[in-house]
């Protein structure tokens, strides 16, 4: 709901939807006033806590939503996921009005006065002839131009937005479980869990805690630098990371590097805007933080999906700043690999001289390995078990109510088919990447399409699931099937029996099961949709897009019909 605290200029505007009490939720309370710009009436709305300002030609929730969405998307000091959170929190389907008792001191009045006193300058920035017929684009431009009028106002807005987003709408990291495949470094510094109760508290009254956190930060940064084989010249990672962890994050409230995965974006945005950095320095600064979040994944502080989110967010921010593109004559991947094959020592030389990054080094090594390991001729199977029937149980982890499937599949089916049929049984929409990992051997199986993307983290460890058969697996083998970047649904997969008594099924067949499966939600962690308002698991259903889903619903016949598409 769009909650408007109106002033005296609204007396003739309001006839209904008056409210005596406001719901105090993020980005829902707006001070408002009416302003005349070139004899045209505009409604100026200013968000209570951040000063976010929006100009409208009419108080229409649909128009508000459109302008809000485009305006928020233009703020590249906020990560894309947090932009979506703001849009979701502020979007409205109706308007309610609340009389503002402090009309003379409202932010809306102050900003309206600023526009009127600098009207010519404002119109010069807020007018574009090519946007005159596009109402939304025109209003977005007029709204964005407000902060350019006064540097202090602009800085105040950015600072307050950063504070509100990190406090109210953080992108939370999650600890990986014991089967986490990228956790390959032993952490040499304490966890932040001991200080979790202090998160987001003011720093002024917690001096001793701040000092302890700074010591942990320093140990963490030291280990990152010691274990990194990459040169970040001309950037000093010690200075950059200390400034981020001990100064930026601890400026006003207690925050850790794991408190909000989006907080690195406003930090880098501030550095990029306040310093006249050359392209190489800006690139290497971003490279420091991309590698730092990868390091946090390697020591088990965050998941690989968290690292990938931070990595992509940093990349997008860097891309917004003008970096010199590679010339059109740049060699293709195939041409580079051909040269490297002829000169196998060239990669090591380029890496040690700092000409290519660690990520590029790993990626190229992985591509070479994959050309051998994942070639069409290479396959993994056991011919004796190709005709066997595999009985398998798959359980959706960290989810209530209990949700599982018991099914049979032919040993002659590919691992790719196994992965896909399990996801299909749990109603996945295949909008995310997935892989299967053997808990004991750590072998990871992924399809050809995914290999290039995931192999940037560990390029040499995966086996092509399309060229590997279920017969490769043994009885009692246990696996973790991971689905998605962000939601990260995980399944425990167990090979219960391998039998030869009857002919193997032509396609997978579900024998029994329980629970509905995955609830689809592209933007948020799907787990939250299974909790009620008090944070307790929902036992009877969950509401998504106004459709009630019975989480206990299990239709074996319906799901088995879907299995027929996986016929051998």
From TrEMBL:
Pfam families recorded: PRiA4_ORF3
InterPro entries, per database record: MM3350-like_sf, Plasmid_pRiA4b_Orf3-like
Record domain Plasmid pRiA4b Orf3-like: where: 389-521
This protein's name: Plasmid pRiA4b ORF-3 family protein
Record organism: Lactobacillus xujianguonis
């Amino acid at each position: 709901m769009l909650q408007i605290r109106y002033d005296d200029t609204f007396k003739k505007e309001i006839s209904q939807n008056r409210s005596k009490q406001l719901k105090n939720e993020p980005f829902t309370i707006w001070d408002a006033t009416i302003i005349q710009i070139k004899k045209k009436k505009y409604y100026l709305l200013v968000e209570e806590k951040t000063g976010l300002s929006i100009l409208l030609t009419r108080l229409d929730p649909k128009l508000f939503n459109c302008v809000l969405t485009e305006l928020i998307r233009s703020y590249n000091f906020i990560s894309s996921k947090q932009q979506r959170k703001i849009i979701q929190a502020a979007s409205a389907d109706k308007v309610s009005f609340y009389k503002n008792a402090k009309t003379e001191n409202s932010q809306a009045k102050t900003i309206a006065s600023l526009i009127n006193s600098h009207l010519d300058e404002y119109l010069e920035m807020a007018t574009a002839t090519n946007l005159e017929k596009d109402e939304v684009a025109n209003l977005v431009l007029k709204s964005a131009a407000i902060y350019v009028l006064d540097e202090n106002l602009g800085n105040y807005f950015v600072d307050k937005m950063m504070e509100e987003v990190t406090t109210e709408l953080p992108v939370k990291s999650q600890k990986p479980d014991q089967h986490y495949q990228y956790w390959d470094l032993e952490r040499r510094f304490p966890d932040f869990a001991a200080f979790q109760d202090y998160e987001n508290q003011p720093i002024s009254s917690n001096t001793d805690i701040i000092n302890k956190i700074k010591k942990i930060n320093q140990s963490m940064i030291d280990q990152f630098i010691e274990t990194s084989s990459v040169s970040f010249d001309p950037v000093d990672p010690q200075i950059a990371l200390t400034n981020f962890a001990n100064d930026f994050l601890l400026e006003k409230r207690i925050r850790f590097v794991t408190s909000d995965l989006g907080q690195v974006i406003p930090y880098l945005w501030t550095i990029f805007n306040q310093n006249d950095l050359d392209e190489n320095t800006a690139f290497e600064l971003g490279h420091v933080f991309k590698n730092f979040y990868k390091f946090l994944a390697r020591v088990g502080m965050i998941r690989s999906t968290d690292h990938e989110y931070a990595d992509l967010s940093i990349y997008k921010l860097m891309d917004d700043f003008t970096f010199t593109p590679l010339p059109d004559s740049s060699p293709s991947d195939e041409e580079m690999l051909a040269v490297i094959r002829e000169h196998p020592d060239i990669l090591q030389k380029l890496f040690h001289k700092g000409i290519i990054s660690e990520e590029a080094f790993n990626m190229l090594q992985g591509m070479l390995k994959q050309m051998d390991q994942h070639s069409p001729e290479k396959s993994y199977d056991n011919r004796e078990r190709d005709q066997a029937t595999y009985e398998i149980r798959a359980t959706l982890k960290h989810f209530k109510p209990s949700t599982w499937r018991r099914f049979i599949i032919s040993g002659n089916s590919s691992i790719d088919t196994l992965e896909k049929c399990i996801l299909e049984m749990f109603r996945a929409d295949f909008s995310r990447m997935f892989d299967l990992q053997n808990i004991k051997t750590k072998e990871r199986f992924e399809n050809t399409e995914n290999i290039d993307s995931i192999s940037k983290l560990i390029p040499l460890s995966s086996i092509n699931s399309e060229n590997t058969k279920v017969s490769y697996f043994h009885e009692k083998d246990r696996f973790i099937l991971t689905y998605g970047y962000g939601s990260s649904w995980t399944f425990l997969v167990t090979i219960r029996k391998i039998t030869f008594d009857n002919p193997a099924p032509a396609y997978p067949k579900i024998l029994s099961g329980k629970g509905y499966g995955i609830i689809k939600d592209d933007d948020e962690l799907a787990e939250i949709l299974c909790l009620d308002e008090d944070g307790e698991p929902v036992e009877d259903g969950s509401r998504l897009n106004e459709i009630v889903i019975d989480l206990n619903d299990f239709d074996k016949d319906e799901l088995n019909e879907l299995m027929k598409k996986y016929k051998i």
